[in-house]
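Troubleshooting entry. The earlier prediction with flavin mononucleotide gave an output that would not parse, so I re-checked the input for stray whitespace and re-submitted. Clean input:
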Amino acid sequence: MTILDKTGADLLFREAYTSHAWTDKPISEELLKQVYDLTKYPPTSFNSQPGRYVFVKSPDAKKKLAACLMEGNVEQTLAAPVTVIVAHDMKFYNELPRTYPAFDAKGFFESMPAAIEPTAVRNGTLGGGYLMMAARAMGLDVGPMSGFDNAAVDAAFFAGTEWRSNFLINLGYGDVSKKYPRGLRLDFAEACKIV
Ligand SMILES: Cc1cc2nc3c(=O)[nH]c(=O)nc-3n(C[C@H](O)[C@H](O)[C@H](O)COP(=O)(O)O)c2cc1C
């Protein structure tokens, strides 16, 4: 049985922290592709893969995004080399004949429209979580944010499409001189039950 060694577990979990300040070290397009190549593997219901990821990198696109943010998120977002809009495609089920051929899952969603949004949001959120782990695995730091106007981001980036924003993730190399102490984590007895 193979398990992640201590170095890997430290990188992904124990030493990883939320970054709010960034060095100016850039992120190449190649590295973003490598991050997605890890993000795509974990499971989603019906292998539905509703997560969609917009890597906001150019100064113009960053400005457009900054106009949608809560004040406290503007500086950190403009300083990060890349900000990911974690989104979901409300028409994700059109891909299901290709990604889940064992069952007519497309027909299932077409006949159960109430299941579309919760499936898109649940599995799209997992995708954002996986992307954070993938980024950390590639040596990047992450700064997730929900302090923004989703409708404004959808209008600015997704007009005329079925993509909808969920949350944002700043990506880059954290400025350790401005690192916050890690927040307290609940222990097993507080957060878990074995029944
Ligand atoms: C979904 C989500 C939304 C968040 N929204 C914001 C935000 O709008 N602005 C911000 O500065 N931090 C935001 N955070 C960062 C959290 O406050 C931070 O990850 C948490 O306190 C743990 O910090 P630590 O990893 O440094 O211990 C968000 C985190 C998550 C996962």
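This one parsed fine. The chain has a mean pLDDT of 97.
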